[in-house]
């Protein structure tokens, strides 16, 4: 591994982490083969804040630039979200308003495809990201602290950090998202110094993340500690490093979003058998790679071209 990264480079270790986190979620939903795989969602929120801070640092100085950013975020998120909603509706049925990411107001937010809840919160976080640039650091600090407080209260009340997918925990889900997303932004700016970090420390971080996902849920204080301390520290360390070969990291990072968006309705069909779950997970990984290459990228390129023509 390399222990320094240039500011304009891609964070390949975080791509690798995103890919493995998506697989962990699939195995979690597939008969709980990864018992605490829902922590991967917190990784996604932190990584989103980190990556957006890296991609848009110094670029959102006006309302017009913020509007353009929000349109580009919609283009980034919606095509795959739409496909995930279609898959869910085809298998489980449900309301067509799911195609517009409109949640149910009673019970599970998206019965057709449960993980869509986090995409709703991701969209809300994108709007908040624009506000950070309008109002500056006090807004970021408010999101971080208020989000942490709301999330901590929700975890201690519910006894779990797996919150946000049903209407009764909507507020806790917002807190979970606000904390993770703003923590990712903070971590990015803390990483700007690029102080060398031992690869051995990165290995321990990877092992810690694996151990965390294999924990048997049960202690709200431990879960809160994992989300608010362990995962942010691990991302901080891994962001300083690059793998010697980045091909696998790019491949896994690219397919992670399609995999997350489509997997739940499909993996639930196989959840009574561990062998079937693993086989289905492998198939979903391959299908998601194809979706990224032949659906996600072309559709986004077409939409971005149309937006550029009308802007």
TrEMBL record:
Signal peptide interval: none
Pfam families found in the cross-reference section: Acyl_transf_3
Coiled-coil ranges from the UniProt annotation: none
Top-rank lineage group of the source organism: Bacteria
Keywords, comma-separated and alphabetical: Acyltransferase, Membrane, Transferase, Transmembrane, Transmembrane helix
Native source species: Erythrobacter westpacificensis
UniProt keyword Nuclease, yes or no: no
Start and end residues of each Acyltransferase domain: 14-291
Transmembrane stretches, start-end: 12-30, 36-56, 77-102, 114-132, 139-159, 165-190, 197-215, 221-241, 248-267, 273-295
GO molecular function: acyltransferase activity
InterPro entries hit by this protein: Acyl_transf_3_dom, Acyltransferase_3
Name of the protein this chain belongs to: Acyltransferase
